[in-house]
Inverse folding.
């Protein structure tokens, strides 16, 4: 069976009142990754980047600049083969025991045109890096290295 990523994302609903849900989904993934690694010193860093290019000169007239990017970092288990396989499977049941429905990452594409993933994980004592783009495209996962 093939999955049409664009069609699947288009069929998802994301109401304006839940506009931060894709970010929350990414944070929950970080929490799961830390739990899966089995460490007590888990760390999640959230960076919100704003477009300040069109800012006003007088600070008292300034409103919040528009958000242009989110970066979420954690020291969890990473995108090992098992996690990447689940990520690459639409509606995966992999995190069902944690309440996951396998669609959270699709909400990322509902809100953002693409997501850049950079992950370090361990296999047999060796640290490996996996990078890829998750995009609103036919393939979904692109530039997988």
């Amino acid at each position: 069976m093939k999955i049409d990523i664009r069609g699947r994302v288009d069929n998802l609903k994301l109401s304006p009142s839940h506009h931060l849900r894709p970010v929350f989904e990414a944070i929950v993934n970080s929490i799961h990754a830390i739990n899966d690694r089995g460490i007590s010193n888990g760390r999640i860093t959230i960076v919100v980047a704003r477009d300040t290019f069109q800012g006003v000169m007088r600070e008292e007239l300034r409103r919040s600049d528009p958000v242009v990017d989110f970066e979420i970092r954690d020291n969890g288990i990473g995108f090992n083969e098992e996690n990447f396989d689940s990520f690459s499977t639409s509606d995966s049941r992999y995190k069902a025991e944690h309440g996951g429905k396998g669609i959270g990452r699709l909400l990322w594409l509902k809100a953002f045109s693409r997501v850049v993933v950079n992950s370090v994980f361990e296999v047999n004592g060796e640290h490996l890096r996996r990078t890829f783009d998750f995009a609103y495209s036919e393939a979904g996962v692109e530039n997988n290295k």
Notes: The longest strand covers residues 114-123. The chain has one domain: 5-142. Residues 54 and 114 are 24 Å apart (CA to CA). The first helix runs from residue 5 to 10.
